[in-house]
Amino acid sequence: MLLREVFMSVETKARFVGDYRVELTHGPTGDKFLTDLPADNGGKGRGFSPTDLMAASLASCILTIMAKTVASDGVDLTGASITVEKRMKEKPRMIGSFTGTIHLPQGLSDKVRTKLAACVHACPVHQSLHPDIKVELKID
Questions:
Q1: Could you tell me which CATH number the domain at 49-139 has?
Q2: Where are the alpha helices (DSSP H) in the chain?
Q3: Global pTM value
Q4: Is 23 helix (H, G, I), strand (E, B) or coil?
Q5: Segment (H or E) for 97
Q6: What is the CA radius of gyration of the chain?
Q7: How many whole angstroms separate alpha carbon 134 and alpha carbon 140?
Q8: 10 vs 6, 13, 27, 30, CA distance in Å?
Q9: Where are the domains of the chain?
Q10: What are the per-10-residue average pLDDT scores of the chain (140 residues)?
Q11: Phi, psi of 18 (to 5 degrees)
């Protein structure tokens, strides 16, 4: 039997609305939000910048994969959180690193914590990052 890979595609629309802001629309749901040029690059920093969204995507992806990984073990990760700091490089202007801390609920076994630690590198966003971008997230 041949296994077929399934690829999901999701359309995102981006529209420049002026004053360095871009409106993003999620195709399947129509959900919208704005990005802004960061203050350190001549903008006003009124919301997430495009590179801030990468930090948010990484954090969200890791938590989602963690929750999915331990759900079949009956583990509820409600309340788990990640604080991520994005650091930029100047030349060329690009993301240099993501650092931060993953806060897990108390009372998890060592076995579950080990399983969760592996999720940091297994999430699709982390897998999609350029290898020059350092990711250093500690788990407390």
A1: 3.30.300.20
A2: 50-71, 110-122, 124-128
A3: 0.89
A4: strand
A5: strand 94-103
A6: 18
A7: 19
A8: 13, 10, 7, 12
A9: 1-48, 49-139
A10: 71 97 96 95 94 97 97 95 96 95 96 95 94 95
A11: 105, 165
